[in-house]
Design goal:
Blueprint: E1 25-30, H1 36-49, E2 56-59, H2 65-81, E3 86-90, H3 97-110, E4 114-117, H4 140-150, E5 154-159, H5 170-182, E6 187-190, H6 196-208, E7 215-216, E8 218-219, H7 225-235, H8 241-247, H9 254-274, E9 279-283, H10 289-298
Parallel strand pairs: 1-2, 1-9, 2-3, 3-4, 4-5, 5-6, 6-7, 8-9
Helix pairs in contact: 4-5, 9-10
This protein binds flavin-adenine dinucleotide.
Flavin-adenine dinucleotide binds at residues 60-62, 89, 91, 116, 118-121, 139-140, 158, 164, 166-167, 172-173, 176, 189, 191, 218.
Length: 315
Amino acid sequence: MASASSPDPVPGNGAHTGPRTGGMNVSFEFFPPKSEKMEETLWAAVTRLAPLRPSFVSVTYGAGGSTRERTHHTVKRLLGETDLAPAAHLTCVDATREEVDAVVREYRTTGVRHFVALRGDSQTGAGGSYTPTPGGYRNAVELVEGLKKIDDFEISVSAYPEKHPESPDFATDIDLLKRKVDNGATRAITQFFFDNDIYERFVERVRKAGVYIPIVPGIVPIHDFTKVARFSAATGATIPAWLAARFEGLEEDAQTRSHVAAAVCAEQVLDLTKRGLTDFHFYTMNRADLVYSICHILGLRAAKPAGEATSAVAA
Ligand code: FAD
């Protein structure tokens, strides 16, 4: 396990180079579907992306009982029907420690070994002030500690290249990240960003603070620029002027928009590979099209069915 106090010899984001040719590793994030139609969309995306052999696939977790049930159902289905390694997102919202621990034990019984441990947002949504649940884990630092008490799980946590919106400064954020690592987190996945210089400056700050775990870029393909711009305002992600210009005038032209989105995302990821990065986490929005194209450009090829010679490797 990488610790906060032992320098990581791996360059770039410090992600492991793994056994694959080319050392490229991708992971995919999905959200639990709310309807039968959405379930079909999700499984079409899973089926399309699975042959790219992601290191893991993660499933987000929402507030409220029914949303949570959908996450459990999706994670269990991934375990039962695919050979993918699912990571279950978990938050501290509206649950006591005992309740969270019970969910974790149930996951363990079904074979889940990897969690993305998060504090979560207040029920009023991102941006509302967060009040810990009485008797619950107060933040991700405590949640990571709680998970490790139950078993030696693999634990990923969040990181914010442009600072968490509630955080007074970078130092507070990075100190929190360090505490998550001290408690056993071995990978951070970033909030999405579009300016790679911002990411790089953040990683420099993190390393200076003595945190050496992989800081895996969270990459969001832009299916809908207007929505992404709105969401960026809430999360604090900068939209560079050049990016807005690329989508200008395409509001009614879905086809061109999707070509531009693939080009923009591939540019971003290729630039990150030039900076030495090897691992990427894609926020898929349960859609495979753009992510598949970008992975192809990165050199990933679908594994051939059993019996054929080549497997999915980075070219
Ligand atoms: P933490 O790391 O615990 O803390 C976030 C911020 O809160 C800190 O940066 C700091 O500013 C402040 N803070 C917390 N504790 C303290 C303290 N003791 N002292 C001072 N400041 C403190 N949300 C979901 O609901 N479901 C998901 O599945 C989900 N998945 C996500 C996946 C990724 C990769 C990312 C980046 C985010 C995800 N989120 C998800 C959003 C996340 O829940 C929110 O950003 C939330 O506001 C913070 O959660 P966290 O785990 O980052 O919090």
